[in-house]
């Protein structure tokens, strides 16, 4: 975990407890490393972070096909049996991911995620790695 994000987990509590049906909240770097989590164990958060890295890359590739796009992903929402998945850009090189039950209020979730990103966005950015190493 990146040192400045090591104590960020508590910041995610407001989102998780403020939106009914929220199951897991994870902040990840663009390369799929878990930076913070709430409501889930480390193994689950690590798997979600790794999967999100691929998803944000795929979304960026699709976005680059739009003539006016800069190729960056802002928000991905996936509806599945049993719930919803949200992935939102949350600063330079960082993303906010949420898994929620099927009864979640999608509008409230989007609003709370945007509010969280705006409120603590500078704390959610992940600096580029130097020689394959994160900042410690």
UniProtKB/TrEMBL annotation:
It comes from the Bacteria. The chain crosses the membrane at residues 83-104. Keywords: Membrane, Transmembrane, Transmembrane helix. Residues 9-100 form the Roadblock/LAMTOR2 domain. The keyword Transmembrane applies. The keyword Cell membrane does not apply. Pfam families: Robl_LC7. PANTHER family: SERINE PROTEASE INHIBITOR RV3364C. This is Roadblock/LC7 domain protein. It comes from Streptomyces fradiae ATCC 10745 = DSM 40063.
């Amino acid at each position: 975990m990146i040192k400045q994000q090591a104590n960020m987990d508590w910041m995610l509590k407001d989102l998780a407890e403020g939106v009914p049906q929220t199951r897991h909240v994870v902040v990840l770097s663009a390369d799929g490393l878990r930076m913070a989590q709430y409501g889930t164990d480390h193994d689950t958060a690590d798997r979600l972070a790794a999967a999100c890295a691929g998803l944000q890359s795929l979304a960026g590739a699709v976005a680059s096909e739009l003539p006016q796009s800069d190729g960056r992903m802002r928000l991905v929402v996936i509806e599945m049996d049993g719930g919803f998945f949200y992935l939102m850009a949350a600063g330079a090189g960082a993303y906010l991911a949420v898994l929620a039950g099927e009864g979640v209020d999608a509008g409230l979730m989007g609003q709370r995620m945007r509010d969280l990103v705006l409120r603590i966005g500078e704390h959610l950015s992940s600096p580029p790695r130097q020689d394959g190493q994160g900042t410690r």
